[in-house]
Each structure stands twice: as structure tokens, then as C-alpha cells.
Write a structure and sequence with these properties.
single chain; 772 residues; seven-stranded mixed beta sheet; five-stranded mixed beta barrel; 25 helices; 19% strand; extended
């Protein structure tokens, strides 16, 4: 319902910069400030009314009440549209004048009590005469000038109320903000109409003066056009004499003839050079055209580096800086071997998937070095704009090609090793979906004619060796994942970390700190203490930073004591690095009821976690805590249902659960957990709690459970086994179908365990529970 009389209202306030809204007028304006967006949200939650008021100073970014005019317009929001860059376009219709009476909130948006006041339009002969004068003045202004259409001026004749007519004319006049605000402040309709009539007469007179000035300017422009014509004639004369090329078109044409462009690129480049030759030097269009031509000619058309396909050398390069990663190295050697046999093979797109810090990016650099190709890296982490991949269209000011074309120009060859790092971190929003753009790039059947939006011509990417890296495949779209050959890069064992520290990290950090080789020494026991006590990660990034800290402390000691070398002992390691950060908790020696050791796989490797189950008087309610995800909660419910269904086999009463509440908790409640592999762990904890049977604490288990009690296979067995190894576990219970995965686990790790392969939950209970 419209507001048509004086009234007090509590309204959100939206400050306007350089704009004034009148009643009876529809206005579009853009909003990007947080306080303004909050005011719109507040209005939409209520009756869509908002108080629009002009700022005194347009430059004020965060205005307060003192920065606003007191008089504004109560308006109704009719439409809101989302624009790029967190900006909104609002259509609002002014209803009635208002004035701020009492200031209220300032956060998240300004609100105030507003008093609205309606126009009291007089109905006298004098007011009707004033209306006619205003009509005629406004029509004369529209006919003489071009800022208001004649149709608009004629439509104003439909408005015959004094105040409304003044407001409609003022909204269509190109007035300064201060003048518009003065008209809004005027509450007397007759006085307001007289003021706007005076302004119209003034502006009409200004139009006559502007026409006189324009006539004088036009004469000067005609002279400039004559000068331009003469310059063009002079340019033609220079061309006939052979000394043209102010824009360097002959040099560009020579480069085009020497570059092995494809047919479409040659045709487009030739037309653009001809177009450039017809442009005036120094014009913006000439600069844009010249930049485009240079981009075409700077691309490495037909330039390729010769591959070094010596497999023995490739193995040496890969082994030089990377310990382990046997699957990755073997797959790369296979690719090079096939490439050596079939030179024009379209290679697969490899995707190295593994935890952070295990060497995925650095091994791709080693691949480029081994093959003798240039290396280009593009990080996709946080990329949300499709233009990052395909470039901007040339219609935009400042348009540039996408990062793929830019990377090839940087490499200078058509067959570099191109790394897409963190491909699982791509996002999408209103600017497009970059993952969809990658489909063409990473498809060997399509990328021989890749079209960048800026270049608008086909470029062959089929000879590029694309390699991608990711921490997980869960967030990669299925269509993109289908084009990738996934190679798992596992986390390092402690023995592998010891080898990496001894042979790679320590010598590298010694050299990086300007010391002579072996000037800082530490034995294997100290290195193990540093790995186990100060790092907990799947890769070796933290280990390298910790090594650098030890080297810095050693440098200080060498300078203070005037030594040439330092041997780091266990005591000195503690002095350098402080107290041990991570303590390896040995499993409890005493069997416990309702406490079971489970194994989990995270993005930073394997972890051992205890599942606790407690019973209390109640009504059979199952409570789950520890920030468990939906899949993990369903696993607990499945385990509980299995225990209830098999109560007779387990020696429990049929209604054993009805008078007790069950609470299952997974410690470290601040860490989110999910996945189905804790099913057997929760089932064992429930059976242990209800049957009062202790659980062996030197055993750890993993596996998904079904309602029939089957134990299904799980992923990440190597990482989970390493976690059990670090925790000192002696018995490892795994699904029988994961037997094949034991081959990936180092022998010295498996020697520690008695591995029990379970087909059903009964097999798990036989091993884990101690019958008294």
C-alpha cells in the first residue's frame, strides 16, 4: 500500500552519491557498498520500502548521519539485479518526501525514524496558470536542446498537479546535485514549481549560447579535417616514393611472410596489417591493432625443441632430486619409451594426485629437464574466471590472451611441458566455469585447434605435454577427470623421509645457507628424532623448514664459537628447536571396554584415532559426537542396526538397547571427520560396550560394514598402515579385498604387524575382543 499522507516510519537508509530521487519517479542506480547492500536486504525483509537520501560529499566512502541531507524520498524497491564484481543494480520508485527525525542504527546499515509529508496541491487559477507556463517552458527547452526528448516533454502534459509536475520535470533536467536537493527540500508545491520554471528558462537561454559556441567550434573542426586530408595525401606521396611505414607495417608484413602461420592465421594477420596501414599514427585503434598483430607473430609457430629420449639419462635426472615415487617415475619412463618408438604420439594427460609436499610439482620440473623441453607452470588454485584460460575478447579495453597462450609465448616452443598445478582447487562463479574450458585444452582429440577468445584463430596444442597435479580427485568435475590418467603419489614413510633428509634436504640447506659441504652433521638417530618429534605431515615441506632452522642455529653457533663445523646431537637438537612438538603415544597396554583403535586417511596422510562408546540409562537413543560427517554417521547407524539384528549370536538380550542410551565419540572434536571406513571400528566398540568385553589396544582396524556384516574394501591402506606403524600397533585388521594393496607397503613396515584379513565383522570381533 502506497504512503500518501504524513506518517512516522522506521526505515533503512541508503545514501546516494551524486543522485537525488523524487516522488513519482522511477530511478535505476548501482549499489556496491556493504552498508548499502545491507540496507537493501533490510528493506526486502520488510515491506520493500527504503529511505533514499543524497550524500553532501560524493567522495565520502562510509558516510554517517552528519554526511547526509535531512530530506530524502521514501521509495519502494521494484527490482534488484546482480552485476559483476559484487555490485547490484536497483530499480526504485519514489513515493513521498520524508525527513529524518530520529537517528537509530549505524551497523550493519543506517536506520532512522522518518516523517513523511505529502504535497498539498492548491487548486486556484494562479496554480493552473503556473502549470501551463511550466509545460510550455519545458517543451521549448526540449525542442531547442537534445538532452530531453520531445516525447518526454509532451508526456509531462499528463501531469497537472503542481508538486508532482515540479518533481517530474526536475528529475528529467540535467541539474547539479545541490540544485536538485534544494528542489527536494522545498515542501511548498507552488514555490517548487516556480523555482523549476526559473531553472528551465535559464537552461533554455544557455542552449542558445551553446549553439553559438558550437558554430565557432565547427569551423575549427572543418579546418582540422582539411589538415588530416592533406596529411593523408602526403602519406600517399611518401608511399609512392618508398619511404612510408610510420607504423612499421612493412616490417610486420616481412615477419608474417617468414613465420609458418596456418592458413586462417595468415589470412587474419594479413587483413589486420592492411587495416593498420590505413589508421592514423598515434590513434588508440592503431595501438590495439599493432598489439594484436605482434601477439600473433610472437607465438612459437612451428618452433619445437628436440626431445632427448635417452631412457637411462631420464632415470638419472628423475632419481637425482627425488627419492621414492617409483610409480610416477615408471609411468614417465613408459611414456618416453613409447614416444621414442612413435614420434607423433598424442600423449595422455597425467594427473599426479597426492598429499601436499610429496614432490608432485618438482617431479614435473624434472620431467621437463629429462626430456629437454621448456617448462611452463600455471597454478589453478582459486581460478574462477574462464578468461584466465581462454582470454578476453578484443572488444574489451585492455584485453589480453589467456594464460595458456601466454605460457606458450613465454616458452617459445610448441612442445613444452605444461604444468596445471592444483587442478582440484578451481572454482566457478558468474564469470564462467574454467573447468569446462579445460575440457578442450586437455582433450587430445580437440586441442589441435584451440581457440583463444583474444586470438580468435586456431593454435595447435597437441604437441604440448600437459601434466596436472591435485591433492584429491573429489572436487575435480567428472568430465574433466575422465580425460586424466590418475597416478597416485603416496605419502612418504619415515624411512623414506630419513633418506630424503640425509641425501637431499640437508645438503641443499647447507648450500643454501652458504656453508661448505658437511659443515653441519647429524647422525640417523638425530634425524629420526627431528622427523618424529617436530614434523607430522605426508610430505617433507615442514621437514625442510625445520632443517633450515637447525642450519640457522648452527651458523650462529659456528660464528660465536669460531668453529668450522657443528655436529648436532640429540641434546643440541632440543636446544635448537625447543620442546618436542609431537609425542608418539604408545597404545594403551591394558585392554579397555568400548575403546577401539581406528585408522583414517586425510589429505596430509594417515592418522590413528580412537572410537569411544559409552552406555548410560535411557531410552535407546544413539548419540554421535566429534564433528562426524553424514557418511560416518550412517556408518554408525549401520553398525548399531547390525548389533541389534545379531543380538542372539552376540549373547545379548533381545531388548538389550531399549533401557540404555548409547554415546559414540571420536576424539579431537574440533577436526571434521567423514567416510565409511570407520564402520567396523564403531561396530566393535558397540559390541564391546554392550557385552562388557575388553578390546585389545595393540590392534587397529579399518573397513566399511554392511547390514549383513560384510567388511568392504577401503582406500588409503598404505597411509593408514603407516599411521599404525608410527603408533606402535602390532595387529592390523583390514578388509580381505584389500589384500592386493599390501604389495605397496614396504616390507620393513609389514614385518611389524600380524595382518588379519577380515571378510565379516565376526572375523574382526574374534581378533579384537578379549573373551573373559
Amino acid at each position: 500500500m502506497a504512503v500518501s499522507k504524513d506518517k512516522m516510519m522506521l526505515l533503512p537508509i541508503l545514501p546516494l552519491r551524486g543522485q537525488v530521487v523524487y516522488p513519482h519517479v522511477v530511478l535505476h542506480f548501482d549499489v556496491s557498498r556493504k552498508m548499502s547492500i545491507a540496507a537493501l536486504e533490510r528493506a526486502m525483509q520488510n515491506d520493500q520500502r527504503i529511505f533514499l537520501v543524497s550524500q553532501k560529499d560524493e567522495e565520502t566512502e562510509t558516510p554517517g548521519f552528519d554526511d547526509l541531507s535531512l530530506t530524502g524520498t521514501v521509495a519502494v524497491i521494484r527490482q534488484i539485479m546482480n552485476l559483476p564484481g559484487e555490485c547490484l543494480r536497483v530499480m526504485a520508485e519514489g513515493e513521498i518526501r520524508g525527513r529524518i527525525v530520529t537517528e537509530q542504527e549505524t551497523e550493519p546499515c543506517m536506520t532512522a525514524v522518518v516523517r513523511s509529508f505529502a504535497d498539498k496541491n492548491p487548486r486556484t487559477k494562479e496554480s493552473r496558470a503556473a502549470v501551463r507556463v511550466a509545460w510550455e517552458l519545458f517543451e521549448e527547452y526540449a525542442r531547442k536542446g537534445s538532452r530531453v526528448s520531445v516525447d518526454t516533454a509532451l508526456s509531462v502534459r499528463n501531469v497537472n498537479r503542481t508538486g508532482e509536475l515540479a518533481d517530474v520535470i526536475a528529475s528529467n533536467m540535467p541539474l547539479r546535485t545541490e540544485e536538485k536537493q534544494q528542489l527536494l527540500d522545498e515542501t511548498d508545491p507552488s514555490a517548487r514549481l516556480e523555482k523549476i520554471s526559473t531553472i528551465i528558462a535559464r537552461e533554455t537561454e544557455m542552449i542558445d549560447l551553446e549553439k553559438q559556441v558550437q558554430a565557432r567550434v565547427r569551423k575549427q573542426v572543418d579546418q582540422n579535417q582539411k589538415d588530416y586530408y592533406l596529411r593523408e595525401q602526403l602519406k600517399a606521396i611518401h608511399t609512392e616514393l618508398g619511404d612510408d611505414d610510420e607504423l612499421g607495417t612493412s616490417e610486420l608484413r616481412k615477419r608474417m611472410d617468414e613465420t609458418p602461420l596456418n592458413e586462417e592465421a595468415r589470412e587474419k594477420c594479413g587483413k589486420e596489417i592492411e587495416r593498420l596501414g590505413r589508421m592514423a599514427p598515434g590513434s588508440p585503434e592503431a595501438a590495439v591493432s599493432q598489439t594484436y598483430i605482434e601477439w600473433i607473430l610472437d607465438l612459437p609457430w612451428g618452433k619445437e625443441t628436440e626431445d632427448n629420449l635417452d631412457l637411462k639419462r631420464a632415470r638419472e635426472v628423475l632419481d637425482k632430486d627425488h627419492y621414492g615415487l617409483e610409480k610416477v617415475k615408471e609411468r614417465i619412463i613408459e611414456y618416453l619409451a613409447v614416444l621414442r618408438v612413435k614420434q607423433d604420439m598424442k600423449g595422455p594427460i597425467l594427473c599426479f594426485v597426492g598429499p601436499p609436499g610429496v614432490g608432485k610439482t618438482s617431479v614435473v620440473r624434472a620431467v621437463a629437464e629429462a626430456v629437454g623441453r621448456r617448462f611452463v607452470q600455471m597454478s589453478l588454485g582459486g581460478v574462477r574466471d574462464e578468461a584466465e584460460i581462454r582470454g578476453h575478447r578484443r572488444t574489451y579495453i585492455g584485453a589480453i590472451p589467456g594464460r595458456i597462450i601466454s605460457g606458450l609465448k613465454q616458452a617459445g616452443t610448441m612442445n613444452p611441458v605444461f604444468l596445471f598445478d592444483e587442478i582440484d582447487k578451481m572454482g566457478n562463479d558468474y564469470r564462467g566455469d574454467p573447468a569446462s574450458s579445460m575440457l578442450e585444452v586437455l582433450d587430445a582429440e580437440q586441442n589441435n585447434a584451440f581457440r583463444d577468445h583474444y586470438m580468435e584463430l586456431p593454435f595447435d596444442l597437441s604437441k604440448v605435454m600437459f601434466i596436472t597435479t591435485a591433492n584429491t580427485t573429489d572436487s575435480i568435475p567428472p568430465a574433466l577427470l575422465d580425460r586424466l590418467e590418475i597416478i597416485e603419489v603416496p605419502s612418504y614413510t619415515e624411512e623414506e623421509k630419513l633418506q630424503i633428509l640425509r641425501n637431499h634436504l640437508l645438503p641443499r640447506q647447507i648450500a643454501a645457507h652458504g656453508l661448505k659441504p658437511r659443515s653441519v652433521r647429524m647422525n640417523d638417530d638425530v634425524m629420526r628424532a627431528m622427523i618424529e618429534g617436530y614434523t607430522r605431515e605426508a610430505g617433507v615441506r615442514t621437514l625442510e623448514r625445520t632443517t633450515a632452522m637447525v642450519i640457522r642455529k648452527a651458523v650462529v653457533e659456528m660464528l660465536e664459537n669460531e668453529k668450522n663445523a657443528v655436529t648436532v646431537s640429540a641434546a643440541k637438537l632440543g636446544k635448537y628447536l625447543g620442546a618436542v612438538r609431537y609425542l608418539r603415544e604408545a597404545p594403551e597396554q591394558k585392554a579397555s571396554i568400548g575403546v577401539v583403535n581406528g585408522l583414517a586417511y586425510t589429505t596430509v596422510g594417515g592418522e590413528m584415532l580412537q572410537v569411544e562408546c559409552a552406555l548410560m540409562p535411557g531410552k535407546g537413543t544413539l548419540k554421535l559426537t566429534g564433528q562426524l560427517g553424514d557418511v560416518m554417521k550412517e556408518s554408525a547407524e549401520t553398525a548399531f542396526s547390525w548389533v541389534r539384528a545379531h543380538s542372539e549370536e552376540l549373547g545379548l538380550k533381545a531388548d538389550f538397547w531399549q533401557d540404555r542410551d548409547i554415546h559414540i565419540h571420536v576424539p579431537e572434536g574440533a577436526v571434521p571427520k567423514d567416510g565409511p571406513s570407520a564402520g567396523v571400528t564403531m561396530a566393535t566398540a558397540l559390541v564391546s560396550a554392550f557385552a562388557a568385553s575388553p578390546v585389545r589396544q595393540d590392534a587397529a582396524m579399518t573397513g566399511e560394514i554392511t547390514l549383513r556384516g560384510r567388511v568392504l574394501p577401503i582406500g588409503g591402506l598404505k597411509e593408514k598402515t603407516l599411521a599404525a606403524f608410527r603408533a606402535g600397533i602390532r595387529t592390523l585388521i583390514i578388509p580381505k579385498e584389500n589384500h592386493k594393496d599390501l604389495e605397496e607397503i614396504p616390507g620393513y613396515v609389514l614385518e611389524r604387524f600380524t595382518v588379519v584379513e577380515a571378510e565379516t565383522i565376526g572375523d574382526v570381533l574374534k581378533t579384537a575382543l578379549i573373551k573373559e
